[in-house]
Amino acid sequence: MRRAIGVDLGGSHAMATVVEESGTITVRHEQDIVDRSPNAVFATLEAVIRPALADAKDKVVGIGIGSPGNVDPKTGTIRWSPNFNWTNVPLGDAMRAKFDLPVFIANDARCATLGEYVFGAGRGTRNFALLTLGTGIGGGIVAEGELALGNQMGAGEFGHHTIRSESGFICGCGRVGCFEAQCSGTGLIRHAVAVAPSFPRSKLLDVPKEKLGSKAIRKAAQAGDGHALAAWKNWIDDLATGLVNVIAFVNPEVIAMGGGVSSAGDFMLEPVRKLVDERTTTVPKGTTKIIRALLGNDAGAVGAATMALRGGLVATLGAAAAAPARADSAGAPNHSIPAAAEAG
Length: 344
Ligand SMILES: [Zn+2]
What we know:
Elements: E1 3-9, E2 13-20, E3 25-32, H1 38-56, E4 60-67, E5 70-71, E6 78-81, E7 86-89, H2 91-98, E8 103-107, H3 108-119, E9 128-133, E10 137-143, E11 146-147, H4 179-183, H5 185-195, H6 214-222, H7 226-250, E12 254-258, H8 266-279, E13 289-292, H9 299-310, H10 319-322, H11 324-330
Parallel strand pairs: 1-4, 4-8, 9-12, 12-13
Antiparallel strand pairs: 1-2, 2-3, 5-6, 6-7, 9-10, 10-11
The protein binds zinc ion.
Residues 160, 171, 173, 175, 178, 180-181 line the site of zinc ion (ZN).
């Protein structure tokens, strides 16, 4: 069976996996990233990829890397990454110099979308959206069986569509009330801080502000804490607004929710589904399944490997040959780097 190296490069952690064509991960090598300077990160990548290649032995067709940031689709240069504070870092060139294999680099959220579509929650659908609620909001769109990339690889950047332009929180991008500012895990913390004056005796306030995490708030809400529940309710309200917009743009059969906060499961999904149904006006109510993503933290690595196995960020087998815009970068042997996207 063919296999590929799938790499999930995060701001503080790198994982290289061996992924079989069936989507199964057989090998993992991981390292924390302490030094975010380009050469240090290249060395960390090499340190996880080399042993993965050694374990894979043979039939490795390429290396796929999901990276945060905006990636030049032709060279694999990271044009801009807030996570690493990088500008124009030649990640693609560096990896090609180290490994004698085709290297494919794309935005991590698009890779995760591909992984979930082919092997996870989107399997069997033709129209699909993934939303990962973490520090920010990552995501992606599959439309009519194809991963949507967009003119500048920015399709699926749901995180920066505006939910509350007047009363919202300030987003990392500088604008006010982005979906990411309101509804990421970080957004949940902001909601908790925002309603805190109404809960002067809240136990959550015993936690130092800088240590108050979304997990603690989620668990407190599940345990019935009044302050946490108030924050949770506002967060759910904003989340439903964003999902209604996603339905209007994509009309997917399935929206899969990933990221740490989504481990709340039905505690999150049931109220969200109810509000989404109330507010949906563009398609028949109840026709969009909102479910949890299935691959968890593996989605990015599986998707990156799938990209390498398929010669590009394509959702449907054989699509690379059928799509000229992608085939020109995906078709050249050994030294091509198709795909990229906006910051995740
Ligand atoms: Zn924003």
